[in-house]
Structures are given as C-alpha cells and as structure tokens.
Amino acid sequence: MLSLQGRDQEYFVTYIIAFDLTIMKTEFKPIELDLEAGKTYLWCQCGRSKNQPFCDNSHIGTGISPKVFTVNISRKMWLCVCKKTKNVPYCDGSHLK
Ligand code: FES
Questions:
Q1: Which residues' Cβ are closer than 6 Å to ligand 1?
Q2: What is the pLDDT of residues 30-40, one digit of tens each?
Q3: Are 31 and 78 in contact (CB under 8 A)?
C-alpha cells in the first residue's frame, strides 16, 4: 500500500485530480456530426447512452427523457456530451470548465 505524507501526499493528490480532469475533458468532449434538415434526433440527457450524443433508451427508469430536436438546414454541428451545456443539445464549451 502506498504511504505518502506531507508535501509528497499533497503532490500525489494534486496529480490524481489533474489526471482525472484530463480524462474527463477528453472523454466528454463534444462530437461533430453532419445533421440533416428535417430529420428528428434524440439527444441523450441522462449521460448513460452508449451511443453518445444520442439516446439508446438507457434512461429508462431514471425519470429523464431525451431531448427531441431537428435542424432547419443540413450542416455540421458540435453536440454536447458532457451534459453541462446551457444550449442543449449543442456544445457551449462547458466541458472545458
Ligand atoms: S439514454 Fe440518455 S436520455 Fe436516453
């Protein structure tokens, strides 16, 4: 078992927190997708879907529902995966905070 004290322990804890944040920022970065005009999309709001950023029905039983959305013009858009965006379903940079 690892036994650290004082500044070594402080340094180790800081390193682990920084490492976790790096993983989170990578894992939850937005996904750029070609969205088609008129098509209906279901954006996962619960974070459980294995098909991010879209719903795969893993929310069943959570009380959370997917966000249904369409686009008027076919174009590339960055969709939020971290679920912290204030502009659902689009990325607003919240994953970086
Ligand atoms: S799986 Fe997350 S909202 Fe459906």
A1: 44-46, 48-49, 55-59, 64, 66
A2: 999 999 999 99
A3: yes
